Amino acid sequence: MYFFLSYAQGDDQDGDVLAFYRDLSREVADLAGCRPEEAGHIDGQIPLGSDWSRELDHAVNTADCLVALTSPRYVRSEFCGREFGVFVRRVERHVAVHGVHPPALIPLRWIPSPDLPAVVKQYQYRNASTGPVYAQDGLKTLRRRQKHADLAAEFVLTLARHIVQTARQHPLHRITPPLRLSETPDAFAAPAPAPAPAQDKPATPPGGDKPAAPPGGDKPAAPPGGDKPAAPPGGEGSAAGQGGRCTIHIQGSQGVQIGDNIIQHNTWS
Question: What is the CATH number of the domain that holds 73?
Answer without folding.
Answer: 3.40.50.10140
